[in-house]
Task: inverse folding
DNA sequence: GTTGCGTTTATTTTT
DNA sequence: TAAACGCAAC
């Protein structure tokens, strides 16, 4: 650990051990390095025990990376007991320990958005009088928003008087009650319940305050009210809280992140030291100048400017294209040309866009040109129906009170428990105020159930009980799961229910991937359990297994495609920011709602600062939308970049066999040959 | 319980 | 344009 490699500010931050510290770290200022050095410094120089350290991040990826870097710095042995995790994993851990104090059982289910929406739909059906269809997702969003602001059901008040608010006010308490009856918690509860646990049971809080002597938080600008309170409680009197963040990179306001947390840190923690890291080690001068110019238009921010001791680099390219197809082609041409001229690998390119749907045109073109790529985000693996079905079975095995998932699998695959039977069971459950599972177990006692139905139900109960026991006994979870899915014939059901055989094949593969994910979980984990696996799945704590997973492990050389949001924290030698048009960036919805354009500008800033050497901005003059051509207007943020930094071009549409195109074709030819040779 | 057809509706970002 | 949904007919 060589402290002399740090600049003055970085060194000051590393050496600040006790008391609150606000580290304002601009993009590319070596922030992660400072955090890891600081952890190392505390352990090595200050004799802090690893178990007394807690570092919190937002994404599993960031947590994993930080952990690896610390281990590399101070040695794996010195890291034993140190916790570096996301807010959500940390809180699940805490809840696993003491949630019984709040009246839940330890085998609680974690509900993701899809589960939540399903439950809310059911509840709305029960409430709904006028037969009008309301958007359950919107209600889900409103409840989530309330939870992020720590508003419990009983305190939810209608402020704007729109019909959705009234509906939310009605549904929210029922929703929360149902969750508890199902022994389930949703994503927002993970944080909110932990805060409540600490507040209502000071002895529990004290336990953790005793343990965690030094707290560190990355991406502090993204914390919401609940997370803020959590940190505050944990920091306690000792106030050894070091937060790292950049108000200019706050892009999760829509998820309840409160920019006030970072802007008011000095007020919340009087006497806090403030250190700014403004020297940038990532990008060229031109790129930084553009970034500074754009973000300078925001009013709500702490004044700062990135600078570099390096040179200006190449100008930023701005390419005006005809339409989305043309845009994709332009990007491909650039990739080929850059790769050729500067001997770059595919993995050194990233294509960034505002919305996930924009990836499509690029994917098509990349596939057409045989360029390998990885797509980050988009349709989540665990959101696919077949995956959710499989996971639902496992969830019910662990927690039989989980009725959302119980109802999901009750008659899937078909086992003779039709709608009428299900309705009768549900009614019996409601009338007797007993959990649905108990009713199922006692199906024989329900008179209005036919003999056949009774048999079907008890068969299902027996099946679940049998496998619950097997899972509890065997260490070989993956094999048991495979057998389980085979026995209930999930695969057959997929083939039957999918007309396109190709799609069916895909889905079956996805089902297999669930078992594979479980197998790799078993390898990694010291004391594996079914509920442990489900926890990882719910928190998306695994590299998402998709059909590329094997190759991906070999660090495939591929172009990266992702949203601007997912790009935060990453860097690439060449970055394409595509779709630089009004209504994309800033996004249409933001404009309509008259909401915060500043957050969109920050998003733009995040994108620009991902680029190390070369930044290419593209936009289309027209674009197909819902099958119709629409004229497009260049993004207002482009005008905020000083003209002298830009090299503006117009794509020539399709020039008949230009030099560049010939080069493209030649490259395609060669990459085709390489592909044939198995390169 | 399923299939097929016509109609509607899109509209952001994710732990 | 495309996917998702509802409804009617099997």
Result:
């Amino acid at each position: 650990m060589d402290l002399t490699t740090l600049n003055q500010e970085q060194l000051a931050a590393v050496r600040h051990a006790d008391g609150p510290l606000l580290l304002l770290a601009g993009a590319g200022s070596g922030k992660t390095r400072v955090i890891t050095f600081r952890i190392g410094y505390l352990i090595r120089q200050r004799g802090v025990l690893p178990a007394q350290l807690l570092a919190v991040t937002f994404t599993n990826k960031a947590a994993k990376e930080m952990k690896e870097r610390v281990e590399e710095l101070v040695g794996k042995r010195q890291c034993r007991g140190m916790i570096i995790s996301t807010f959500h994993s940390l809180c699940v851990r805490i809840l696993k320990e003491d949630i019984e104090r709040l009246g839940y059982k330890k085998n609680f289910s974690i509900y993701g958005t899809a589960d939540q929406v399903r439950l809310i739909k059911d509840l709305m059906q029960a409430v709904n009088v006028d037969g009008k269809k309301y958007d359950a997702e919107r209600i889900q969003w409103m409840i989530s928003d309330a939870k992020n602001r720590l508003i419990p059901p009983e305190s939810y008040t209608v402020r704007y008087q729109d019909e959705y608010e009234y509906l939310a006010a009605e549904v929210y308490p029922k929703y929360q009650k149902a969750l508890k009856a199902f022994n389930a918690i949703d994503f927002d509860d993970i944080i909110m319940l932990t805060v409540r646990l600490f507040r209502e049971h000071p002895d529990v809080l004290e336990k953790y305050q005793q343990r965690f002597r030094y707290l560190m938080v990355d991406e502090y600008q993204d914390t919401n009210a609940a997370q803020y309170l959590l940190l505050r409680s944990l920091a306690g009197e000792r106030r050894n809280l070091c937060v790292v963040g950049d108000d200019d990179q706050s892009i999760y306001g829509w998820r309840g992140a409160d920019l006030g947390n970072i802007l008011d840190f000095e007020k919340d923690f009087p006497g806090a030291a403030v250190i700014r890291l403004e020297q940038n080690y990532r990008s060229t001068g031109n790129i930084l100048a553009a970034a500074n110019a754009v973000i300078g238009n925001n009013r709500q921010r702490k004044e700062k400017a990135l600078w570099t001791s390096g040179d200006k680099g190449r100008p930023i390219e701005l390419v005006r294209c005809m339409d989305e197809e043309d845009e994709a082609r332009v990007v491909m041409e650039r990739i080929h040309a850059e790769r050729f001229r500067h001997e770059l690998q595919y993995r050194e390119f990233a294509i960034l866009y505002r919305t996930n749907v924009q990836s499509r045109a690029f994917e098509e073109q990349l596939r057409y040109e045989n360029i390998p790529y990885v797509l980050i985000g988009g349709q989540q693996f665990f959101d696919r129906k077949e995956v959710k079905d499989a996971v639902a079975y496992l969830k019910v095995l662990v927690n039989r009170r989980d009725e959302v998932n119980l109802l999901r699998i009750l008659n899937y695959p078909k086992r003779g428990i039709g709608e009428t039977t299900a309705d009768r069971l549900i009614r019996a459950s409601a009338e007797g105020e007993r959990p649905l599972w108990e009713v199922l177990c006692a199906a024989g006692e329900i008179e209005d159930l036919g003999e056949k139905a009774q048999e079907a139900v008890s068969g299902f109960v027996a099946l679940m009980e049998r496998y619950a026991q097997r899972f509890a006994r065997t260490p070989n979870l993956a094999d048991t799961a495979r057998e389980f899915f085979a026995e209930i014939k999930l695969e057959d059901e997929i083939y039957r229910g999918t007309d396109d055989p190709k799609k069916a094949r895909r889905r079956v593969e996805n089902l297999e991937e669930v078992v594979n994910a479980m197998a790799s979980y078993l390898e990694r984990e010291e004391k594996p359990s079914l509920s442990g696996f489900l926890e990882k799945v719910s928190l998306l704590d695994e590299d998402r297994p998709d059909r590329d997973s094997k190759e991906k492990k070999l660090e495939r050389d591929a172009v990266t495609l992702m949203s601007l949001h997912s790009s935060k924290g990453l860097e690439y030698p060449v970055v394409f920011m595509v779709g630089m048009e009004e209504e994309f960036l800033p996004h249409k919805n933001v404009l309509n709602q008259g909401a915060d354009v500043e957050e969109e500008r920050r998003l733009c800033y995040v994108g620009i600062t991902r680029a190390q050497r070369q930044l290419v901005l593209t936009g289309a003059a027209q674009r197909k939308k819902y099958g119709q051509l629409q004229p497009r207007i260049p993004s207002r943020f482009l005008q905020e970049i000083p003209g002298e930094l830009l090299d503006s071009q117009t794509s020539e549409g399709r020039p008949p066999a230009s030099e560049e195109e010939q080069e493209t074709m030649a490259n395609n030819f060669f990459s085709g040959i390489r592909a044939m040779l198995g390169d």
